[in-house]
Design a protein that fits this description.
By secondary structure, the protein is α+β, with helices and mostly antiparallel strands. The chain has 2 domains: 2-200, Bira Bifunctional Protein, Domain 2 (BirA Bifunctional Protein, domain 2, 2-Layer Sandwich); 210-253, SH3 type barrels (Roll), CATH 2.30.30. Helices cover 26% and strands 33% of the residues. The chain has helices at 2-10, 22-31, 84-100, 170-191, 196-202, and strands at 12-19, 40-47, 65-74, 105-107, 111-114, 117-128, 134-143, 210-214, 219-227, 233-237, 240-244, 250-253. The strands form 2 sheets. The chain has a 7-stranded mixed beta sheet, sandwiched between helices. A 5-stranded antiparallel beta sheet has the order 11-10-9-8-12. The longest helix has 22 residues, at 170-191. Bound molecules: biotinyl-5-AMP.
């Protein structure tokens, strides 16, 4: 048992030249009840079926980017997993700041932006019951050097590290990202977002801007105030603050 814990901390890296999706790979192992050690990392040079949220496609050309998934076993159940996207966003922030001195901003719930261009996206998927242990697959797609024609397939502004002038060593990037992720997840396990939400609010891409929020059924407009301790989005509407929860909500600048 002690060894099991230790190997989770050391981590377990698996690399693939090509894969359907690093998230799907781990989710399938969990669905088929295979033993997966907490801290397992799957990275690939390309994905044939890279996924965003709500069935959206994550463009995943060969060799150009980082396609990364981290498996984390959380004891406290699904409730505690609600704000994980926020913690992961901060981990990506930490990593890029440490390695490249880059100051990214974060768009709720899961985008990493530079000058409103998407540099990275986060997809957190859950497998578990409301009670009991929760299996989390944390997927991070980070653009390093996209091909010239990438815009033909991406319907929003994007950027990559090379175009931002960074020299990237993928080994170092993967190691640093894993380190930052484990730091933030450990913090999350101890104190949830109670310290992190204020940090997040300092790098909120849409702070004090008018945004549209789309819950699937309904759209709302309001001034983006920030997030609360549960990771919900606070909008100011007609002078009143209202908080919105749920991972399937998208935000756009008006
Ligand atoms: C996300 O979804 O931003 C989550 C992306 C997570 C990708 C990682 S890669 C490793 C792991 N394995 C997977 O299969 N997925 C995870 P969402 O918020 O739904 O954003 C999707 C939208 O981002 C698309 O509709 C496009 O507008 C845009 N997009 C697609 N590919 C992009 C890219 N490479 N760079 C920037 N934007 C992109």
């Amino acid at each position: 048992n002690e060894y099991q814990k230790l190997s989770g901390q050391i981590g377990n890296f698996e690399t693939f030249a090509s894969i359907n999706s690093t998230n799907t790979e781990l989710m399938q192992r969990l669905a088929s009840k295979q033993v997966v050690t907490s801290g397992t990392v799957v990275v690939a040079e390309m994905q044939n079926a890279g996924r965003g949220r709500r069935g959206r496609v994550w463009q995943s050309p060969f060799g150009a980017n980082l396609y990364y998934s981290y498996y984390w076993l959380l004891d406290d159940g699904l409730q505690a997993a609600m704000g994980v996207s926020v913690a992961v966003g901060l981990a990506v922030f930490d990593c890029l700041h440490t390695l490249y001195g880059l100051q990214v901003s974060l768009k709720w719930p899961n985008d990493i932006l530079v000058n409103n261009q998407k540099l990275a996206g986060v997809l957190v998927e859950l497998d578990g019951q409301p009670e009991g242990p929760c299996h989390l697959v944390i997927g991070i797609g980070l653009n390093i050097a996209m091909p010239e024609n990438a815009s033909e397939h991406i319907d929003q502004a994007w950027i990559d590290l090379k175009r931002l002038g960074m020299q990237v060593d993928k080994n170092v990037l993967i190691a640093q990202l894993t380190y930052c992720l484990e730091q933030r997840l450990a913090q999350y396990q101890v104190s949830g977002l109670s310290d992190m939400y204020q940090e997040w609010n300092k790098v909120n891409a849409f702070a004090e801007q008018l945004v549209t929020l789309n819950t699937g059924q309904k759209t709302w407009q309001g001034i983006c105030v920030g997030i609360d301790q549960q990771g919900g989005l606070i909008l100011r509407q007609d002078g009143n603050e209202k908080t919105y929860y749920g991972g399937e909500i998208s935000v756009r600048k008006v």
